[in-house]
Amino acid sequence: MRALHIHPQDLRYKAMIGTGGIGSGSFFELRGNHTLGREESRGGRFLDPRDYCKLHIIAHYVATLLGPGFETIPIGMVGEDDVGARLLAEMRDTGMDLTYVASSPVAPTLFSFCFVYPDGTGGNLTTDDSASSKLDPARVTAAEPEFLRFAGRGLALAAPEVPLDTREAVLDCGTRHRFLRVASFTTEEMAAVVRSGLLHKVDLLAVNLEEAAAAADIGLDEAMRPASLVERAIGALAQLHPDLTVSVTAGPRGSWSWDGSTLTHVPRCEARVASTAGAGDAHLAGLMVGLAAGLALPHAQQLATLVAGLSVTSPHTIAKEIDRESLREFARECRAPLSDGVRSLLEG
After folding, report:
1. Whether this model's pTM surpasses 0.70
2. How do strand 23-30 and strand 44-52 relate by DSSP bridges?
3. Per-residue model confidence as pLDDT tens digits over 13-70
4. What is the pLDDT of residue 277?
5. Which has fewest Cβ within 10 Å: 104, 107, 195, 293?
6. What is the predicted pLDDT for the residue at 223?
7. How far apart are CA 315 and CA 278, in angstroms?
């Protein structure tokens, strides 16, 4: 059984409608763990793991863990190429509704070049001229009947790798139809997001430590304790948007959530790390799954920590083996403290 133990009638939210990148990529392992320099030339080798982009990763875990009683409706675009066709087939097999995923005849499917250090950390470079970059707000407007169908009972997701105005259109639809509006933005986008007031259209902001610092206009001082940086960032964000809830991931340092009154830290689950690529997206998916299942944000954070922790044991950016049983076993192995609500979802 892949899905969590929850009856569809007990779901707080019945659907996720969202946008973000759909694409593939390659992994390249660098020689040496020191950070790649701006003008450095360094050797390495291509790796075999399968890479996926943000919307696909998040939507995969949401669809599989919440099961057929929950509708997962991505809004995106791929190229009319073999890679795009393969990705659409995988998404369809997971149970997603692909009505609003189009194929572009003029732009290729989004591609990411992921570089990985021997210790499992890394980053990625993503094409700017892909089909995902052509996704415009009109595609979101076409999906408005779906927002209306789930008015007051849906999650609206705005994830990177598509234009900001398209993501804003998703958040606007979510606003009109009383969805919980969830968004993440890259470090480079944060200044424009804050300046434009876009954060006021977001209910839950999901970011990593660097993105949180950028959102709050705080210099990322490596000497500063992560907890102190998070506290400063949350304080600054609360002044900008008092009703904003926030999730901050920090890799091996765990994660923090702010529900508007309490800052909660959850340590990471110790696991054998094959690759950390995609872990942040897995964490966000786990949060959304927990919230859809009716968990409070700090308890959804526990579930998200399990999903992210288990995801890093896979060399692929989607760990397709993650389901209720594997999460339950992983929680036992790492002795993660869980709320009764999370335990109920896992135990059945």
Report:
1. yes
2. antiparallel
3. 999 999 999 999 888 899 999 998 989 899 999 888 888 999 999 999 999 999 999 9
4. 80
5. 195
6. 55
7. 10
What tokens were used for 219?
A: 């210099």
